[in-house]
Design brief:
The complex is a heterodimer. In chain A, about 50% of the residues lie in helices and about 10% in strands. Chain A is α/β, with parallel strands linked by helices. Chain B is of the alpha/beta class. Classes of the chains: A alpha/beta, B alpha/beta. The complex binds iron/sulfur cluster (2 copies).
Chain lengths: ~425, ~375
C-alpha cells in the first residue's frame, strides 16, 4: 500500500490566493531595491489600509511564524530563540519569529523578507504583542516604532472615549511616523476609497462564512476558514485583488451549495456531514493537515470558529466605514475577537452554536497563547450550561511541535465523537 | 515601640491573611465603607481611600493554601497566580469585597476580570487599561476616564463623591509611604544585615492589607529601629532581584537566596507600592490630574509598561549601579510571559554593563529550594572569587 498522501484539491480561489501571496513576497524581496518601505505589524487589529495608502508593504510576523510551522521549520527557529535566553514557557510565535530573523529571515517563498522601516505596534487583544515588538525594536536598532494602544472592551462595549483615544494616537503618532518613513502625505481620500473596498470584501466574507448555516455546510469554517480569512486579515484588505478573490470564492461556494456538496478538504470532498461543531481557539500549524484529517475521518465539519474572527467580527455587523476612516479603523481594532471580554466571547460562541445548529462545542487550547487560553475552561462550562451541547477540550500549540501529540489528540477526539454519537442517539 | 522581630511577625500574619480579616474589620467598623481588591502591579489606591474605601492587594495564595478548584479553571501552562485567586473567589474569601480592579499587565489578569464577571464575584470588576501612550492629552485623557470609571463604581456603592481636599491628603499620605519605603531600602543598601529580606518583604506586603495611615506608622517605627546599629554583617554579595512583580516567590525562596550568601538590596516584589518615583503633587486643585501625570512621567520601569525610548535593561543597570549591587538574580514566575519575554534583553544589558546574573523560575507554591540555593550559592561564590 502506498503511503503517499492524496493530492490536495485546489479550487480557482485557492490558486488566486496563492498568486496574491507569491506576488506579495516577490514585492517584499525587491522592496529595498525599488525603494518601497516595509512595515511590520500584527494581524489582530491591523490597519493595513492605512499602510497601503502610503504605498508601504506590510509584513505580519505571526503569518511568518504560522507558515514556518506549516513548513516544519518552526522548531529550528524556536530552538534558536531559546538558545539566546527565551524561556520554554513563552509564546512560541514570538520565538519562532525571532529565531527566523536570526536565521536570515527567509520567508515561505524562500526569498528574504526585508528588514522593517517601521514597526507598527498595533497592540490589539494581546499583551504579548507589546513585548514582542519591544524585543524587535532592540533587534532592529534605530527602526522607529509607532505604538497604537487599543483599549480592551473590558465592559463589553466601545465607548466614545476609547474611540477618541485611538483616533488621537493615529493622528498624533502613527500617521506622522508613516509620513516620515514613506515620505508621503496622508491621503484621506485614498484611505476612504480603500475602506470602501474593504467593506465589499467583508460583505462577501460574511456570506461565505454564513453559508455554513446550511445543511450540509458547503465549507469548513475553521480549517478551510483560515484560508478564507487570509487576504482580508492580512495584506490585501482594501484592495481590488481582495474583492476579486472573495467574489470568486463566493461563486465557488454558491456552486457547491447548488450541488449540495460538503466542504472541500485536502483529502477530498467531505461526503457525509455527521457532526457540526463550533470551535474556539487557533489551530495547530505544525500538523495542520493531520489535525484536519482527524475531523474529516469522523465526518465532522466546523461550522463556526472564533479563530476566524481574530481579524474582525464582521458577521456581527462591523464594516469599515469610508465616511469616517480613522474612527472606523479604531472601532475595527477594538472589535476583534481577542479584544472582547470573556462574557462577550461566551455570548458570541453561544450565538454560533444556536445559529449554526451545532451538535457540539470544542476548544483547542493553545499552550502559547494566554490571550486565547486563560479562561477557556470557565468559558467551556458556561457554554455547556447555557446551551446544553456536548463540549470537548484538547490542547496543542501553534508552532511548537513538542506540544502536538497526535495520539493524545486523536484519542481525545475519538472519545468526544463517541459522546456526540450517543447524544445524537438519545436525542433521536 | 515594638521591636523589629515583633513588627515583622505581625506584618507576616497580616500580609498572608487570605481571609483579609483586617480589611473586612475596617470596613465593618463604619457604614458606607467600601472594600476593593486589586491585582498586581500598580493601582493608585489613594482614589479609593479618598472615597471612604480601602484597596487591598491580592497577590495570589502562595504556599498558604492548596489550590484545588482553581486548577480546574486553568490549564497547566498558565501561571499560578490566577488559579489561586479564583480559588479564593470560589471559597468565599472575597465575601464583603465590593469590587475588584485588574490592572493591565497581561492577558491572564485581563481574562481573569471577565471570569470574575461571569462568576459574579463582587459588585464590579474593572479591567484598568493603563495607557501605553504617555502624552497627557492622549494617554492622559484616557487614563483619567479609566480612573473616573473606578470612582463612579465606588460612588454607586456608597454615594461618596470625590473631594479635592481629601484626595490631596491621601496623596500626601502615599507620598510619605513611598518616602519611608525608599528610606528603608537606602538603609538596607548600606546595612542589609539589620533587617532580613524576608522580614522587609513581609512589612511591605502587609501594607497592601491596611490603610496607608496604619502602614506609615509601622514604617516609621521600622525606620527608627533600623537607624540603630544591630546584627552582624556577613560576607555576602549584594544582589537585585528582578522579575517577581506579580506572582510572588514563596518566603522560603527569598530566604534561600539570602542564606546562599546574597543580600537582596533591591527587588520588584511589591513594585506597586514603589511604582511612582518621587512625590505626587498634593497641593493641586486637580488631584486626579496629579495622579495621572505621575503615572505618565514618574512611573518606574516595568514589564507592564511600553518602554521604547527608555528601555528597561538600561534602567535595571542604573538601579544595580545606584545600589552598588554585585549582580542580578532574574527570578520570574513560570509561564509569566511579561517577565520572561523581557528577560533576554535585560540580561543582554547586564552583560554589556559587565553585571553578573543568574536566572531561575518559580511557582508561588514551590516547596523545594535546594537547587535554587545551590545556584545562588555558586553565584555568590563566583562573584566573591572573581569580581
Ligand atoms: S499570545 Fe497569542 S495572540 Fe499573543 S502573540 Fe502569542 S499567539 Fe498571538
Ligand atoms: S505571573 Fe505573569 S503571566 Fe501570571 S498573571 Fe502575573 S503577570 Fe500575568
Amino acid at each position: 500500500m502506498s503511503n503517499k498522501k492524496p493530492e490536495v484539491q485546489k479550487e480557482k480561489s485557492m490558486l488566486l490566493q496563492k498568486e496574491m501571496i507569491a506576488g506579495l513576497f516577490k514585492d517584499l524581496s525587491t522592496a529595498k531595491e525599488k525603494g518601497k518601505k516595509v512595515v511590520y505589524t500584527f494581524v489582530p487589529g491591523n490597519i493595513t489600509e492605512l499602510i497601503l495608502s502610503f504605498d508601504m508593504l506590510p509584513v505580519y510576523p505571526e503569518i511568518n511564524a504560522l507558515q514556518s510551522g506549516m513548513r516544519k521549520k518552526s522548531w529550528e527557529y524556536i530552538k534558536e530563540a531559546e538558545k539566546i535566553g527565551y524561556s520554554e514557557d513563552v509564546c512560541t510565535y514570538v520565538k519562532c519569529d525571532i529565531g527566523m530573523m536570526l536565521k536570515g529571515n527567509i520567508g515561505p517563498t524562500d526569498e528574504k523578507i526585508p528588514d522593517p522601516d517601521l514597526l507598527l505596534l498595533s497592540y490589539t487583544g494581546c499583551f504579548t504583542f507589546m513585548k514582542w515588538f519591544e524585543n524587535l525594536e532592540r533587534l532592529y536598532p534605530g527602526v522607529p516604532v509607532a505604538m497604537l494602544h487599543t483599549p480592551y472592551q473590558e465592559d463589553g462595549k466601545i465607548t466614545p472615549g476609547m474611540v477618541d483615544y485611538m483616533v488621537k494616537q493615529l493622528k498624533e503618532d502613527v500617521i506622522p511616523k508613516m509620513e516620515k518613513v514613506s515620505g508621503k502625505k496622508y491621503d484621506e481620500a485614498r484611505l476612504s476609497y480603500m475602506l470602501e473596498k474593504s467593506a465589499l470584501s467583508e460583505d462577501l466574507l460574511v456570506k461565505v462564512l454564513e453559508s455554513a448555516k446550511l445543511k450540509p455546510s458547503p465549507i469548513d469554517a475553521y480549517f478551510a476558514g483560515v484560508y478564507y480569512i487570509g487576504p482580508i486579515f492580512t495584506a490585501f484588505r482594501g484592495t481590488t485583488q481582495a474583492v476579486d478573490y472573495y467574489s470568486e470564492l463566493y461563486k465557488e461556494i454558491q456552486e457547491r451549495i447548488s450541488l449540495k456538496q460538503g466542504p472541500i478538504t485536502p483529502e477530498g470532498e467531505l461526503k457525509e456531514e455527521k457532526y457540526r461543531l463550533v470551535v474556539e481557539g487557533p489551530p495547530n500549524w505544525t500538523n495542520f493537515r493531520e489535525f484536519w484529517k482527524i475531523f474529516y475521518d469522523m465526518g465532522a465539519v466546523i461550522v463556526a470558529s472564533s479563530y476566524t474572527k481574530v481579524g474582525g467580527v464582521y458577521d456581527m455587523g462591523f464594516r469599515h466605514d469610508p465616511k469616517n476612516p480613522l474612527e472606523s479603523l479604531s472601532r475595527y481594532c477594538m472589535g476583534c475577537y481577542t479584544n472582547m471580554n470573556i462574557p462577550q466571547r461566551v455570548e458570541l460562541l453561544c450565538h454560533y452554536i444556536k445559529e449554526y445548529s451545532a451538535d457540539g462545542f470544542l476548544i483547542n487550547s493553545i499552550k502559547s497563547c494566554n490571550s486565547f487560553s486563560a479562561g477557556q475552561l470557565l468559558m467551556m462550562r458556561e457554554i455547556e450550561q447555557r446551551m446544553g451541547v456536548s463540549v470537548g477540550f484538547i490542547e496543542s500549540d501553534l508552532v511548537d511541535p513538542r506540544y502536538f501529540s497526535y495520539a493524545n489528540i486523536k484519542n481525545r477526539l475519538e472519545s468526544y465523537f463517541q459522546m456526540l454519537e450517543q447524544r445524537k442517539l438519545i436525542l433521536q | 515601640m515594638k521591636n523589629l522581630t515583633q513588627i515583622s511577625e505581625e506584618c507576616r500574619k497580616q500580609a498572608f491573611d487570605l481571609n483579609y480579616f483586617g480589611a473586612k474589620k475596617w470596613k465593618s467598623a463604619q457604614k458606607g465603607r467600601v472594600l476593593v481588591g486589586y491585582l498586581p502591579i500598580y493601582f493608585p489606591r489613594e482614589i479609593v481611600e479618598a472615597m471612604n474605601g480601602i484597596a487591598v492587594g491580592i497577590l495570589g495564595v502562595g504556599d498558604q493554601k492548596q489550590v484545588i478548584k482553581g486548577d480546574a479553571f486553568y490549564q497547566s501552562y498558565i501561571c499560578h497566580l490566577p488559579r489561586g485567586v479564583i480559588e479564593l473567589a470560589l471559597d468565599n474569601n472575597f465575601n464583603d469585597f465590593d469590587g475588584f480592579i485588574f490592572p493591565s499587565i497581561c492577558d491572564c489578569v485581563r481574562n481573569l476580570s471577565g471570569m470574575f464577571r461571569i462568576t459574579k464575584t463582587g459588585k464590579f470588576s474593572k479591567y484598568l487599561d493603563f495607557p501605553q501612550n504617555f502624552n497627557p492629552l492622549t494617554g492622559g485623557v484616557f487614563y483619567r476616564q479609566e480612573l473616573g470609571s473606578v470612582q463612579q463604581e465606588i460612588c454607586r456603592i456608597n454615594g461618596v463623591l470625590p473631594s479635592v481636599k481629601i484626595l490631596n491628603e491621601k496623596i500626601e499620605k502615599y507620598n510619605q509611604n513611598r518616602r519611608f519605603i525608599e528610606n528603608i531600602y537606602a538603609i538596607r543598601q548600606e546595612f542589609p544585615w539589620r533587617l532580613s529580606a524576608v522580614d522587609w518583604y513581609c512589612i511591605q506586603r502587609a501594607g497592601l492589607m491596611m490603610t496607608v495611615e496604619e502602614h506609615n506608622a509601622i514604617l516609621s517605627d521600622v525606620q527608627t529601629l533600623l537607624e540603630e546599629n544591630q546584627g552582624e554583617p556577613l560576607d555576602n554579595i549584594r544582589v537585585v532581584v528582578s522579575g517577581s512583580f506579580c506572582e510572588q516567590p514563596p518566603l522560603g525562596l527569598i530566604k534561600s537566596i539570602e542564606m546562599a550568601g546574597c543580600y537582596i538590596v533591591d527587588d520588584d516584589f511589591i513594585l506597586g507600592s514603589r511604582w511612582i518615583q518621587g512625590d505626587i503633587d498634593s497641593k493641586s486643585n486637580d488631584p486626579m490630574n496629579a495622579i495621572v501625570n505621575a503615572y505618565l512621567t514618574q512611573s518606574t520601569f516595568s514589564s507592564a509598561l511600553y518602554d521604547v525610548g527608555n528601555p528597561k535593561g538600561a534602567r535595571l543597570v542604573e538601579l544595580v549601579k545606584n545600589r552598588k549591587a554585585d549582580g542580578v538574580i532574574f527570578c520570574a514566575a513560570s509561564f509569566c510571559d511579561p517577565a520572561l519575554l523581557d528577560r533576554p534583553e535585560m540580561q543582554k544589558s547586564c552583560d554589556e554593563a559587565g553585571i553578573h546574573h543568574i536566572n531561575f523560575q518559580f511557582h508561588e507554591n514551590t516547596g523545594q529550594f535546594k537547587v535554587i540555593k545551590e545556584q545562588c550559592g555558586t553565584f555568590s561564590d563566583s562573584i566573591k572569587l572573581w569580581a
